[in-house]
Design goal:
The complex is a heterotetramer, with 2 copies of chain A (310 residues) and 2 copies of chain B (278 residues).
Chain A (H helix, E strand, L loop, with lengths): L10 E3 L2 E3 L3 E3 L21 E3 L16 E4 L2 E4 L8 H11 L6 E5 L4 H11 L5 E7 L16 H14 L4 E4 L7 H10 L4 E4 L3 E3 L2 E2 L4 E2 L6 E4 L4 H14 L4 E4 L5 H10 L3 E4 L2 H4 L3 H15 L18
Helix pairs in contact in A: 2-3, 3-4, 4-5, 6-8
Chain B lengths: L13 E13 L3 E7 L11 E5 L15 E4 L2 E3 L6 E7 L3 H8 L5 E8 L11 E7 L3 H11 L4 E8 L8 H6 L3 E6 L6 E2 L2 H8 L6 E6 L2 H13 L4 E4 L15 E3 L5 E3 H4 L2 E3 L10
Parallel strand pairs in B: 8-9, 8-12, 9-10, 10-11, 12-13
Antiparallel strand pairs in B: 1-2, 1-7, 2-6, 3-4, 3-7, 5-6, 13-16, 14-15
The chains are: A alpha/beta (310), B alpha/beta (278).
The complex binds flavin-adenine dinucleotide (FAD) (2 copies), flavin mononucleotide (2 copies) and FE2/S2 (inorganic) cluster (2 copies).
Chain lengths: 310, 278, 310, 278
């Protein structure tokens, strides 16, 4: 099988048909068009747009980003143009044939539901992802995705608000990720995306302050990949809805690891900053891996991790 | 939402693998890097690029992770494709890694990014005030304005060894003044003192500045007092360089933020809330 | 203050007096003597010996270790010589003047208590650390340190078993680290140590197996430092017993960050493999930092992080 | 708990910062690195060192994190302090990073580590069978035994370009045979076939082997069948190199594990449970 076309790279992510399993992650791909100079967006399976709130939101004061070993920290807060502006100006600017997933975030459940409702049924939006996990928004400190009961209410409310495909993006800052995935499945989510950035702190010993003006931030990039891979595998053991794997992916080999662990698709985040065309390169690389391993459909790799025989 | 700068229609950026042609010492603490970048688009003074070495060395490594923003110092001629020059000061891990790369090795470049400096009126008197790493950001501007405007360049640094590009500025045949904190080159003291002196003449003037936040802030204050327009090119930390990570936010006087990489790096200094700029 | 002696580096870690705040972490420093060729062990505040079980234990099959971005993974399991052998042969071999903390691990609470009892009151042992957090021992998957109720029983049992200083080493694989620290304080622990390695998974796409024979492993090294720093800070907000900060420390600057976040002492783990004398270097560097910042006692830095004024 | 090897009283290891004197191509896929290590202790054949470049380059980086175990190929003379030579094959990130270091740069070295090979009886016939990276681990042994024993060295690799140190072995003036999978140098086939042939003579013989697990396993089987003692030097992954991380465990036939860095790297091949060795 030496011919690219001979590998079927398409996957179905909870009712969202993707031409290949590689999505760009929310908050790392803007509203899509920023990347048009670097790659044909149609090379991606699609992308998840920056998380949207009911009203436009201004972000945190700087510094908002810092570097950590094999990682970056961010405390952007949820700066975004707001759901209506997104639908009016951002969405129409996205080239045809690009699969767009909208991401919703809010500070109260009914507002979450309202954002979902406004995004629901909008042509061009293939599905919704609710971000239950932003590690640096101070909603009383604790995240929606950290409490099973709260998460259940959130998912139920979002489920009522939209008929389309609904993904829930989980927080990694939990004891039992599998339990959180089960809650989402139980409340009718069509899939779960994990992981979001890991809550972290970096300190400047010269100023004796956090390097981020916000204090805490979210850790992302290669450093968190082994943690993400573990959580995706744990979630895959617990639920039958599809999983979108996220965390430190920077190569096709990394993406294949997530499929083997049980993910149906993946999202590339921080790596987009370093190599804006990386999503397309990873999609090509995954097809190449499939060819080399005489695997006709990428979906056949999902969950194929061989566990220690003990 | 934000005042438009610059007349020129800018080229879309590219991501390319550049060949390191040279990476030589520039002064005591800086380097002059020459990069061959096949088909690098045209760029305007004030634009920058994101550079990173790590991910491309033979031993693919992920630390330090992020690329570093660097002004495009100038275009140069090189056999086999367009080439650009970057002048950078070794301040930490990212620039140290860049400094380790040898001719024949490769670095990743994304650019040109950001907007150009605005055009002053032809003939208008222009003062360029730059310090530290900021010196590299204004050379191309000075080269472009030398013929069209009456130009003075004021350069500052802690000490002579920290200066970069002085010979290049001299070769432009423009009015050049230097100040160092320790007086090891030029006048002893702050480059901003030179600015104050230069502004005493009544002529209508436009000031461009790039350098440490303190220095630019001081320039902005002096210009405001003298009622002289001041353009400042900011040097915030960046992760992406093209408007998607929202990491390079600069606080505005009227509230809210501008993105240095997308809306700048050059801004009307009067719009920036300098107190809240990191 | 240019003279080293002018900085008071001593700290009190829950009743364990330390000449300086730098300990070597359990499992990364063997039984101490392995490092004698590389440094005078008295340069350290002390070290925590490899975790001990009632009987000698054989570890996992290889591969037991792997590399990850700015980190390593391990699944050693709790291979150790057993508590009695430790007391009979290992302890006496440790040079005088070296502060030794013994670490206890078991699979049942009463066995934990028995290990603590045997270590209790042994001369040369300055205190105990109970490892409630080994991320790769399959005690039904979930760790003692992941369930507040189980943790409470464990700490209570250990507390009854020893009169000496008792530290509890917490698992990072939890939603609320502060709650776990509070549980330990409530049950009479003299201090908490955090964090242990973070549960993680790495996969080899060529074999489609985990790289570690055990499957899951513990992630350690610089990559986890920002997560550890966050957890130490959160625990410090919640308890008044001293905290021993652990996770990716590889320089004096890193160690100072942990003090600022609220740690009274620190433990250096993985870095001991790369630079066997690093503990001593870090202790010297912390004194130098204090001198440069005109701080006469290192303890004065504890918890001195300045938070964003909002 | 474990049979003692080697007669010599070994020196305690040190951790030192070594100056890279040379780091040149050796064959097509390997490097020969010369390191000046002031006061490096004496070492015995079979001992190794842990090397790492990253943490010491100007841009202190943490990825790749772990040092890599390398046999101490031999001691060499160098101006200003003792020096050692390391021959390494570029297989992945760690060795690629080592390969990037230039003369004048520094690397971290911890050693000498592990135990020496055991001494064969003087006069005893000795066969050394090495392949791939294992070739570097046996040169010093061969050099030491050439005069005291009747020695034959059998080297193998996939192809001629992957071989290292052949000239050095030739210069020892010993019996040397080579096998490559593709026949590009010496006999076509496995080095273990050369071993089988060599063992047909009835002489009492002792075999030393180092190389890929498959190759060593095959050697062990051939020697067991011929009732010839076989010493194998293992090459497990390592984090520390001195017995504290417990990461280098090699499974034993009688159950349990030995630590390759502390109890080896050389073992009686009959003790190793080859099926369970990674
Ligand atoms: C648009 C733009 C153009 C630039 N052009 C040039 C140029 O032409 N030549 C040049 O030498 N430099 C230039 N800089 C600055 C350069 O990007 C930084 O010096 C570089 O990122 C430092 O990286 P590092 O890893 O060496 O230092 P780090 O290890 O990242 O940091 C070293 C120290 O410097 C501080 N620091 C690092 N980067 C910045 C920053 N951007 N702003 C404020 N503090 C910082 C860190 O907080 C730390 O204390 C430019 C910056 C921008 C935004
Ligand atoms: C005691 C000892 C002495 C050694 N002496 C030498 C020597 O003199 N010259 C030399 O070239 N090599 C020697 N080796 C092997 C050398 O340590 C490895 O080749 C090196 O660690 C590979 O590192 P890397 O980062 O380049 O490869 P990695 O990126 O770590 O790995 C590249 C590939 O090789 C595999 N691999 C890496 N290391 C090992 C290993 N130790 N065992 C099995 N598979 C591995 C990995 O799984 C991966 O598939 C020795 C090993 C030991 C234990
Ligand atoms: C600067 C930045 C901004 C982010 N913003 C969002 C966001 O708005 N919504 C969201 O769900 N995730 C957001 N994320 C998290 C990423 O989508 C992703 O889950 C995380 O970075 C881990 O993936 P990575 O390691 O590939 O970056 C953001 C991440 C970064 C680095
Ligand atoms: C190989 C290895 C073995 C370890 N064994 C133990 C152990 O026996 N008991 C324990 O409490 N922690 C053990 N740890 C965890 C360390 O003590 C430490 O908590 C962790 O590695 C984080 O610190 P670091 O990033 O500095 O390594 C081990 C860590 C490693 C890498
Ligand atoms: S650097 Fe990413 S938005 Fe400006
Ligand atoms: S390498 Fe650490 S114990 Fe052998």
């Amino acid at each position: 099988m030496s011919d690219a076309t001979s590998v079927d790279t398409s996957v179905d992510l909870g009712g969202i048909p993707l031409r290949n399993p590689v999505l760009a992650a929310s908050g790392t791909f803007g509203y899509g068009t920023e990347f048009s100079p670097f790659l044909d967006l149609r090379r991606l399976g699609g992308f998840v747009a920056k998380s949207l709130t009911l009203e436009p939101r201004v972000g945190n004061p700087p510094p908002r980003i810092a570097e950590a070993p094999s990682a970056m920290l961010n405390a952007i807060s949820l700066e975004n143009v707001g759901v209506d502006e997104f639908i009016r100006t951002k969405l129409p600017a996205i080239p045809d044939g690009v699969t767009v997933i909208a991401s919703a975030f809010e500070t109260e459940i009914d507002r979450y539901a309202e954002v979902c409702a406004r995004l629901s049924g909008v042509p061009r939006i293939a599905g919704l992802e609710i971000n239950a996990s932003c590690p640096h928004v101070k909603s009383g400190g604790i995240e929606f995705g950290q409490d099973p009961a709260v998460l259940a209410q959130l998912v139920a409310a979002a489920r009522r608000a939209t008929i389309g495909p609904l993904l829930v993006k989980l927080s990694p800052n939990v004891t039992h990720i599998a339990e959180m995935a089960r809650v989402c499945e139980g409340e009718g989510a069509d899939g779960v995306s994990l992981i979001n950035a890991v809550q972290a702190l970096e300190i400047d010993t010269a100023t004796r302050r956090p390097v981020l003006a916000n204090g805490l931030g979210g850790l992302s990039g290669p450093a968190i990949r082994p943690i993400a891979l573990r959580m995706v595998w744990q979630a895959a053991q617990a639920v039958s809805i599809p999983i979108c794997g996220i965390g430190g992916i920077e190569s096709a080999d990394d993406a294949i690891k997530f499929l083997l662990a049980g993910a149906t698709a993946v999202q590339v985040g921080t790596a987009n900053y370093l190599r804006p065309a990386i999503g397309g390169e990873i999609a090509d690389g995954m097809a190449a891996y499939a060819r080399e391993h005489a695997c006709e459909r990428l979906v056949d790799l999902v969950g194929k991790l061989e566990l220690p025989s003990r | 939402m934000f005042p438009m700068w610059g007349g020129e229609s800018l080229h879309a950026p590219v991501r390319a693998i550049a060949d390191v042609l040279a990476n030589d010492a520039e002064g005591e603490s800086s380097r002059r890097m020459q990069l061959r970048v096949p088909d690098f688009p045209g760029f305007a003074p004030g634009q920058f690029a994101m550079l990173s070495a790590g991910p491309l060395m033979a031993a693919r490594r992920t630390d330090p992770l992020l690329p570093r923003p660097m002004a495009i110092y100038r275009a140069i001629d090189a056999p086999g494709g367009s080439a650009v020059e970057i002048l950078y000061k070794i301040t930490g891990r990212g620039t140290s890694l860049l400094a380790e790369t040898r001719p024949g090795q490769k670095v990743s470049i994304v650019g040109p990014l950001g907007r150009a400096f605005p055009h002053p009126e032809p003939g208008e008197r222009v003062l360029i005030v730059a310090g530290g790493t900021g010196i590299a950001s204004v050379f191309d501007l000075a080269a472009k304005l030398r013929s069209s405007n009456q130009l003075s360049v004021l350069l500052g640094s802690r000490t002579a060894g920290d200066l970069m590009a002085v010979e290049d500025f001299e070769s432009l045949g423009i009015r050049l003044q230097i100040a160092t904190d320790d007086g090891s080159r030029g006048a002893r003291g702050q480059v901003t003192d030179l600015l104050s002196a230069a502004l005493e003449s009544a002529e209508s003037t436009r000031v461009f500045t790039c350098g440490p936040t303190q220095m630019m802030h001081r320039c902005a204050q002096i210009c405001a007092a003298a009622d002289v327009p001041c353009i400042a090119a900011l040097e915030n930390h960046m992760a992406c360089g093209f408007g998607v990570c929202l990491g390079c936010a600069a606080p505005l006087v009227r509230g809210g933020y501008a993105l240095v990489c997308r809306d700048g790096p050059a801004f009307d200094a009067a719009l920036i809330d300098w107190e809240r700029l990191p």
